Amino acid sequence: MTRQDPPPPTLGCRDTPVIKERGQHEVFCGLTGIIWLHRKMQDAFFLVVGSRTCAHLLQSAAGVMIFAEPRFGTAILEETDLAGLADAQVELEREVERLLSRRPDIRQLFLVGSCPSEVIKLDLSKAAQRLSAKHAPHVRVLNYSGSGIETTFTEGEDACLAAMVEALPHTNARQLIVVGALPDVVEDQALGLLDALGIENVRVLPARRRDDTLAVGPNTVFALTQPFLGGTAAALERRGARHIPATFPFGEEGTTAWLRAVSKEFGVEAQLFDAVTDAPRDRARRAVAQAAETLRDKSVFFFPDSQLEIPLARFLTRECGMTALEVGAPYIHKGLVGPDLDLLPEGPRLAEGQDVDKQLDRCMAGRPDLTVCGLGLANPLEAEGFATKWAIELVFSPVHFYEQAGDLAGLFSRPLRRRELLRLEAAE
Asked: Which fold, 175-265?
């Protein structure tokens, strides 16, 4: 029997007027993306060309102990480099030589630009080309910017993957590329579903290890798993690939719509689709329902932070019964999040960009039951009596596809349960 999906809202939010704000903002810089990328790409190394502040940020964000040997590091720019008293290119090449001689397991080396390297106009693109030619074919050297100037932290992954796309060889093969860094267990689940649906020649960007057979061309289609990959999507389209528009795979509804869009592209029959998805859909619905008992009829306010805000608002309103007061995002790329906007019920304000003071005023006036925001705002809001959820945790945690749907809902319900327990303890 064919399962009936819930109908879309009479009016979605695709055409809702967007408040565009440009003012004081607070975000992590794009270097933060290295923390999950270096865990994903097991033969890659990320060499940040920056200051001691960059090094301290990465160390604290990753929680790396001094005896650990992670797949990232910082080539620290000293005063002589910044003042132009030393040839930074020569020193960079020396550091790369030392690194590669010490770590022969490296197959991909990313030179990551930072605020300091960009301020002094250090040309890491030419350095990457020169070093890649020198160390080929064993090591491929690429570069991208992780600078925190006017960017949000998830753009680090976008810039990294876009740089990888530019270096891919050409192919005419019919193939699907699943785009976005997912935890290995989640990626395995997604690939298992696609395989059960009979979809062949599925590739992943980024691969866990350098994949010399990964290529792109006019017969390539790609599906995004993260809404912040606009630059990567544009790079793939420049190479001739075609995007499959879909909601993002958060929760049962989002995952099903994502799989259905891919299945339609590859001509998967409805009976096979239902046979493959019915059981995991049921598990996801039951898991979400448990957390939704706490979330139902509660209000939520999203500060702009990760670009996950619109798909998550769709998930919380459609699957968990919440009401969204405002959904703020650093950027709203309707070519990517349009399907989620179509399902997001009419009502919330949509805001693009950031002006912290104005958004704080609106949040205070709305008194939401739950506020999703960056770390810099969470503690002050908690002190004002608001329950908060750290936006960055939603990027670090496994939250995509069916088996993680209950965990995703739980990330939002826990702050409310904690708030209620504290209230009860205070009453006693």
From this structure: Rossmann fold (3.40.50)
